[in-house]
Amino acid sequence: MIRNLFLVTLVVIVTLILVNVLHKEDQYNLKLEELKHKYALKDVPSVNHNKLPALQKKFNTPQEVTEACLSCHTETHKEVMASSHWNWERTTYVEGRGVSSAGKKNVMNNFCLGTNSNQKSCAKCHIGYGMTSSHFDFNNARNVDCMVCHDNSDEYLKGASMAGYPDRTVNLENVALSVGSPRKSNCGSCHSFGGGGNNVKHGDLDVALNSCNREVDVHMGANGMNLECIACHTAKNHNILGKLYSVSSDNSNRSTCEQCHTATPHLSEVLNRHGSRVSCQTCHIPLYAKVNSTKMSWKWSDAGKLRDGKPYEEEDSLGNHTYMSIKGSFVWKRNVKPDYIWFNGTADHYILGDTIQSIPVKMNTLNGSYHDHSSKIIPVKIHVGDQIYDKKYNRLVQPKLYGEAEGDSAFWKDFKWNEAVAAGMKESGLAYSGQYGFVETIMYWPVNHMVSPKEQAVGCAECHTRQNGRLAKLTGFYLPGRDSNTTQDSIGYWMFILTLLAVFGHATVRVLSNIYRNKYEKQIISYDEDKPEE
Amino acid sequence: MRKVYIYKGFERFWHWSQASLIIFLALTGFEVHGAYTIFGFEKAAEFHRTASWLLIGLIILAIFWHITTGEWRQYIPTTQKLKEQIFYYLSGIFKGGHHPTEKSELSKLNPLQRIVYLGFKLVLVPLTILSGILYMLYKTFDQNNLIVIEDYPLASIAFWHTMGAILLMIFLVVHVYMTTTGKTPTSNINAMITGYEEFDDEEVEIHDKNKEK
User: Fold this and answer.
1) Number of other CB atoms surrounding residue A335 within 10 Å
2) Between residues 12 and 71 of chain B, which touch chain A (CB distance below 8 Å)?
3) CB-based contact (8 Å) between B86 and chain A?
4) Residue A237 near residue A76, CB atoms below 8 Å
5) What pLDDT is stored for residue B213 in this prediction?
6) Residue A509: closest CA among chain B residues belongs to which residue?
7) Is the pLDDT of residue A516 over 50?
8) Secondary structure (3-state) at A294
9) A126-159: b or e for each residue (b if 16 or more CB lie within 10 Å)?
10) Helices first, then strands: H and E counts in chain A
């Protein structure tokens, strides 16, 4: 008996141990190791521009630098002038719109609204010189700004409101001699400062990435792989891989994690399978705006308040503007958990002139749903706020914000909405009724950077949980651990409880009846025993 | 009193390993379901998956054993004395009555057990295992052309799997309780541990007679 009992216990224990033994722990991921090795070898330039005779001269204008570049790179301007960095638009097919062009030329955003009538200021981030209005000549190769991307001296700086020209302090000779492959600081000089300040727009593109640690961005971290942007955003013939759906529309030429990591990067099959409906970013970017704050809300309706007839600004404890007379009120956040949406890689945009369809006005619509097989869950920054619109024509309007001086009808100088909008809409070639109001707006920013080390990736239970999971708002599909059939659950629960009660009831009656019977039998027995001996 | 060898070595191994696997699967499974937290979702799901493969392997062995030894015949359902068996549990048992059927090597199961265990083996376990396999392999098309089962909603697969789990738990409670209804409260469980069950001599005679037949 004891031997058998021991054997049974052994079977139970061995079975449970087998579960533990057969369950595999993560092994060494060779794929990742190969990638690390590959990208540890940094490119060494084959040309030192410092030694080129064509660059040993005095440059009076930045255009002369461009000419010097083109004297060797004779066809390169064609590549650059075919890019959206130059054209500020891409022509693509958009569902419901047909073949259309969208880009910074005509797409409205939730920050400084739009470029029309403000080119002189906005062109600080155009790779060209002299964009003062919508009549810029996009065919003049001399105006291509090579230096903003290729300066390796860290000296180059585009001037504020100088139509894309470099700041007057820039030493063009030094910059020209330094040129090389773009670095983080080159890309970041525009992409980190969109919306008028560091990390304002994206939330995941912060000037801090130029020198951050692995915890902030595992790819770009200086104590990690220290990759440049162009390691992923490769740029064959200046056609740069990657786009963001704040202005882009179609599912092509994207820079993806898969291009290096493949679609099955994990050793765990279950994790790989997640990849068919969950983007890499969803789990691997647990937080964005990890270093500096990003703008989460921008209310234009608050703009224009003056103190003693003068514009003013207010700041929070971190030095972020919470109010500016010229722009309105802001909400900033740091270490933000992303929101999550379904996305299939195509988007539509609010294009200047569009009628308002719904409120809040979607500045960009990221298409996708659970039922669309090509959609995946992606993390997004949702930026909300309100904007000025034309009450009569029911559409957003383009105010003229930037102006040289007062009396130029620019809102940032005169603080008069009606005149600013009239001027902006005139420049855009659209009618304005003169009746304006403010309408709620919303904009979606896919989060792709600030990838955390894998140890900090979002854990299973952060989504597979009954309450307050990261995907709590993403309903309409069955997520194990979060969803259950509540009717089935409560019926099952009560059936189980009733069974227990029935069993206990049955047992109780058995025990009681047994006791009763035993007494009865004992009585008989005692009767026998009590019989007088004969 | 005589001891009769009722449960063979494999049978006992199968019974106890299956019991521990099912209880472990329930423990981890209801955690995956979101009912409570013990191991954490990730570990619970991983353990559940490993244990499920072990159970599937064990059941394949058991099926093989049942076929090759002919033991499957033990589960051929019968209505003979079924009513009496039910009435025994509902009233006879309280009056100190005897089991209406006798256990023997050739007939280990009473008519009620036959039907319930057959249902367990042919309905409950297949339902849970098949829905579990669908659940485990639930996939969708992606760039790598992984298989698609997605056209059948996961909510339904999960429903049937949970249904199986709930019924199994109810089975477990009743089953464990029923083991106490033998000659003594522990005689059935003893038999499943040692393989031997003690019979009164007259029963053994019947048993021997059956054997002679």
Assistant:
1) 11
2) 12-13, 16-17, 19-21, 24, 32-34, 37, 40-42, 45-47, 49-51, 53-54
3) no
4) no
5) 41
6) B94
7) yes
8) strand
9) bbbbbbeeeebeeeebbbbbbbbbbbbeebbbbe
10) 16, 15
Report how far residue A214's alpha carbon sits from residue A453's, in angstroms, rounded to the nearest whole number: 7
Q: Which residues are registered as beta bridge partners of A439?
A: A387
Helix (H, G, I), strand (E, B) or coil at A329: strand
**3-state helix vs strand vs coil in chain A, percent to 5:** 35, 15, 50
pLDDT at A101: 92
CB contact (8 A) between residue A1 and residue B24: no
* Per-residue pLDDT, B147: 52
- Which of B17, B20, B22 shows the shortest CA–CA distance to B169? B22
The ipTM is: 0.89
pLDDT per residue over B78-119, tens digit each?
Answer: 888 888 888 888 888 888 788 888 777 778 888 889 999 999
pLDDT exceeds 50 at position B212: no
- Cα–Cα distance measured from residue A430 to residue A416, given in angstroms and rounded to the nearest whole number: 19
Question: What's the predicted TM-score (pTM) here?
Answer: 0.89
Q: Which amino acid is at A484?
A: S
Show the domains of chain B with their CATH numbers. 2-212 (1.20.950.20)
CB A145 within 8 A of CB A18: no
pLDDT given at position A487 = 95
User: Alpha-carbon Rg of chain B, whole angstroms?
Assistant: 20
Q: Which residue has the tokens 């097989």?
A: A373
**The residue to which tokens 């089935």 are assigned:** A488
Q: Between the CA of residue B213 and those of A38, A119, B102, B206, B207, what are the distances in Å? A: 79, 105, 16, 10, 10
The yes-or-no verdict on residue A522 having pLDDT over 70 is: no
- pLDDT tens digits along A199-255: 999 999 999 999 999 999 999 999 999 999 999 999 999 999 999 999 999 999 999
What residue ranges do the domains of chain A occupy? 460-504
Residue A459 DSSP label: P
